[in-house]
Amino acid sequence: MALIELQGIRKVYGQGEAEVVALAGIDLAIEAGDFVAVMGPSGSGKSTTMNIIGCLDTPTAGTYRFRDTEVTTLDRNGRALLRRNHLGFVFQGFNLLKRTSALENVELPLVYRGMKVSDRRAQAMDALARVGLAGRENHTQAELSGGQQQRVAIARAIVTQPALLLADEPTGNLDSERSREIMELLVDLNQAHGITVVMVTHEPDMADFARRQVLFKDGRIVHDEVRS
User: Fold this and answer.
1) Span 97-115, mean pLDDT?
2) How far apart are alpha carbons 147 and 137 in whole angstroms?
3) Are 96 and 152 in contact (CB under 8 A)?
4) Cα angle vertex 107, ends 104, 112, to 5°?
5) How far apart are CA 43 and CA 28, in angstroms?
6) Which of 27, 40, 172, 176 is the most buried (most CB within 10 A)?
């Protein structure tokens, strides 16, 4: 059974002459353990699809299943629970709390879960070690490079041990060397730790790190290739 299954997904914004069809009927299945790069020009529908998979938006029509859950029938609270318990997010802009240590940033999702201090601290320390930041736990954003900040953001995303990591242009603010390091880290999390990764990127060389590449154009999938 697929981890994610989208069938006939449409997303329409506005009405009448202002109507914009962001997704024109998407069918997409993603297996557990896959690493998928989602590509396409601006306005192609790739970000809308990511938002629907991440339970940040809902489709106008179609069905979305996550494991055994029919996501399109969930209310706002149900989608929030699925997001909190099963998904991790990494963004281009890192989105760290500026005056807060790396450790405290990573602990934040566990605070929302109500985990006691000692347990969440140990789990956050482990997540930071997994992304290569052992010894940097007490550094704030101002004391970390861009690549290190993105590593903190990735640690925060995986500290809850999600089934799926959604990465939106994770290397967009980094130079080429740091970008490769981040992609190698995502590959390791995928292969060694079994985290399914879906990544939006406009950079073909970053997409080459993924096992599968899906290309969007005008709200449709026009190419879907599994690399050997």
Assistant:
1) 90
2) 15
3) yes
4) 120
5) 18
6) 40
Token output for 211: 């096992």
Q: What is the dihedral of CA 108, 112, 115, 117, to 10 degrees?
A: 40
Tokens in use for 190? Answer: 């995928």
Angle value at C-alpha 192, between 195 and 108, nearest 5 degrees: 50
175 contacts: CB under 8 Å, gap ≥ 6: 146
Place of tokens 């809850």: 160
Digit-coded pLDDT (tens) for 25-82: 999 999 999 999 999 999 999 999 999 999 999 999 999 999 989 999 999 999 999 9
Residues 6+ apart with CB under 8 A from 79: 55, 58, 71
Which residue ranges form the domains of the chain, and what is each CATH number? 4-226 (3.40.50.300)
Judged against a pLDDT cut of 80, whether residue 1 lies above it is answered with no
d(CA 52, CA 61): 12
The residue whose two tokens read 């996501």 is: 71
Task: Report d(CA 105, CA 23) in Å as an integer.
Answer: 34
C-beta of residue 110 within 8 angstroms of C-beta of residue 123: yes
> What are the strands, taking DSSP E only, across 31-185?
35-39, 61-66, 69-70, 87-91, 164-168
